[in-house]
Fold:
Amino acid sequence: PEPTWAVLPPRCIEERYKAVCGAARTRSVLSLGLACFKQLPEKVRNTYLCQVYNLTLLCTEDYVVEPQSVQFLVQHGFDFNKQYSQGIPYHKGNDKGNESQSRSVRTLFLELIRAKKPLILHNGLIDLVFLYQCFYAHLPESLGTFTADLSEMFPAGIYDTKYASEFETRFVASYLEYAYKKCKRENCKLRDSSGQHLTVEFCSYPAHMSRYIDYRYCSLEEERHGAAGGNNVPVCEKFSAYGWCPKGVKCPHSHNIDLIIDEDDKLWEKRKKRKHRWRHRKNTKVVVTTFQQESSGENMEQAQNGEEGPPRKQSCFEPAAATELAEMAPNGEGSDQVERKSKVPAGLGSASHPGGTHRAGFDAFMTGYIMAYVWMLKQGKNTDAGAGPWLPDCHNKLYLSGKSVPLQIVKSSFSKSSKAHSEKIKLAWDSA
Ligand SMILES: [Zn+2]
Structure:
């Protein structure tokens, strides 16, 4: 059944907001990834120029660090020496005097607002709360005020690619790296069959800038980490389902996303051949998550162990709503939150990439790529982009884990925007 957006239970979401706010007030952002995508109209359709930034930051105020988180980050290549010696300083909360002239991360964030472009995140609630608290202003007490502020800060809309890829594609999982690699694969197929496809170009930088640039192999072609041959390690079911496994690097099973997608594709083909009639996964997801909310753990077990039906891997194992913050914990390598959030000390690494660690910038790139791909699919042959939102069904909707309904970024008639925000945004527009 189609979820009814209007019946979002506000209480528990409000609680979740408060918990994330607590984290944002006491923790700090270690690095910030930003990827800007610009459509190149003179090139073939769906060609973008992409520029990626990976900023290492240093909060100038006291903040909480968990030893475990730091350990995890060090193990995954985060350079604390670099952070403390070269990190860009910033302070949290409200502006201290007129800061709009200075060159700082806060000014950069203000520039993003002034640009009036759509903002794209992946599983973005925690991101937005941290961005607001660390680079904008003190967080409002209520969620309604927070969303009212956001709707004014980003009038072109906020998109969540976790929500968009669940809503618009039929991928069986939606964690960042899975969605990205799956989009890339599908895009390859489109290109090979001469369909319209996505092309991304990158800037070429002069040699003297090379020490600031961290290249990462990123072609349209598949990178096959030898996934197909020789490797008989079975995939880890948990990791496969939601990009997270409690065993982390010690897991005896494979966390290789290419291998995981191979398996999913094989399963899909097999089912297609058997002409097995089965409901689309998307529908099942809605059914199962609704079920999760309403029933006890026992029923969940039954749902998970059911024999028939499509692979419901994600909905089976997806952490329930309350674990949102637990996902920020240090050892959850690769969970959507942990994998890519560089803002809490639990941020950077993922061992799923041997020989490399996640960078906030690359995560931002993957997020933008997913959005560009989904948008291309939705546009189809319709060249009239029009003035409306890109994906009306996903416009201003944030993914909520464990929920079948999204959080809507709106200014409702019940909530006013915050004072700090109103003053700040006025200054931003005036000086734009
Ligand atoms: Zn595992």
Q: What stands out?
A: The first strand starts at residue 31 and ends at 39. Residues 236, 238-239, 245, 247, 251, 253, 255 surround zinc ion (CB under 6 Å). Residues 4-170+327-430 form a domain with the Nucleotidyltransferase; domain 5 fold (CATH 3.30.420.10).
